[in-house]
Amino acid sequence: MPTPTIVSIETLLVDLPTIRAHQLAMTVMQKQTLVIVRLRASDGIEGLGEATTIGGLAYGEESPEGMKLAIDTYLAPALVGQDAGNVNAALHRLDKVARGNRCAKSALETALLDAQGKRLGVPVSALLGGHVRDALPVLWTLASGDTARDIDEAQALLAAGRHDTFKLKIGRRAIADDVRHVASIKTALGERARVTVDVNQAWNEADAAGAIARLEAAGVDLIEQPIARENRAGMARLAARFVVPIMADEAVATPEDALELARLGAADVLALKIAKSGGLHGVLRCAAVGDAAGMALYGGTMLEGSIGSVASAHAFRALPTMAWGTELFGPLLLKDDIVANPPRYEDFAMHVPAGPGLGLMLDEDKLAFYSRKG
Ligand code: MUC
Ligand code: MG
């Protein structure tokens, strides 16, 4: 059988509305833009990939439009004509053509793995050495900006058996208001739910120290990225000062970041995201460093739709330890989906579809409807 080669790579910008406003320290999201990759190989197999960011450029250095441009102009031309089944060689080529651009590379790696899984008749996790768990615990983010509405949302999701851990996005308002908001939600939910907070780097170190003391007293279980990602020494001081664990999110993308955080003792927990790490192999390398250093792991999201979330799940399912579960709820935050068989959410967990590759089928009508024209 001749070696299948990559024939074409198409990118689409897909705008999907969110079910409600999603308020984070740095932006308010009313929609999410997915960069969808369709990679076609000479054996007729198509691989799907996805990349996102959070609030355009508000979160990181790559925007959806920039990712599309980087793929169309630089990354796709480097892959066309190459062996479609050799993922490592393809990734190596991409790293030679472009530095960084890890979200875009993650979408391409996902598409290559999806295609190769379909080719071999195995799920993506099998290409990563196999899965250790079937379903992944998944939390929900409360971010409507309204305390009473957040409590109602959490109570309903607890009662439905969908989520028993809630992450609150704070850092947008005055600290006193944020602490009051979090404490009210924790009091309403009590021992029935774990409550974590994500500050998205909004505080300075002194403010963080005061706020974390109050959040710890209110029963919060985890503090995510309280201060600027560059201030690793500050994170180390906060991690040493408090019992409540400090999680690095924006501060960790690469294995080198994980190593440096470990060396400084700057995080108790690492938020892993395929988008930050340039793909599934990259995120597993990051995880290995964190795990070896005794840091706990958490499966993070870039608020991807079904394709990116299922790709992330295949990587996270391959990890032997995942002490803090995941936040792969992205498809539930979106009003609609471009796949016909999205992941299932029940029993407080995410269940990925069975089948080769990612196991997902595109809904071509929805894809056409939500794709940005022109
Ligand atoms: C982040 O910074 O963790 C994850 C969940 C959510 O609501 O926002 C993201 C981003
Ligand atoms: Mg975060």
Give a concise summary:
The chain has 374 residues and is an alpha/beta fold.
Describe it for me?
One of its GO terms (molecular function) is chloromuconate cycloisomerase activity. Pathway: Aromatic compound metabolism. The protein is an alpha/beta fold. The protein is built from 14 helices and 13 strands. Helix 8 links the parallel strand 8 (222-224) and strand 9 (246-248). The protein is globular, with a radius of gyration of 20 Å. It starts with 5 loop residues before the first strand and ends with a helix. Magnesium ion binds next to loops. [(2S)-5-oxo-2,5-dihydrofuran-2-yl]acetic acid is lined by residues 24, 54, 141, 143, 169, 198, 200, 249, 300-301, 303, 327.
User: What is the number of independent domains?
Assistant: 2
Quaternary structure type: single chain
The number of distinct β-strands equals 13
Average pLDDT value?
97
Shape: globular
| Residues in β-strands, percent | 15-25%
CA-CA gap between termini: 39 Å
* Total of helices: 14
Uncertain regions spanning at least 5 consecutive residues: none
The CATH architecture term of the largest domain is Alpha-Beta Barrel
CATH class (first level) name of the largest domain? Alpha Beta
Q: What bound compounds does this protein have? A: [(2S)-5-oxo-2,5-dihydrofuran-2-yl]acetic acid, magnesium ion
GO molecular function, one term: racemase and epimerase activity
Protein name: Muconate cycloisomerase
Family: Belongs to the mandelate racemase/muconate lactonizing enzyme family.
Cofactor: Mn(2+)
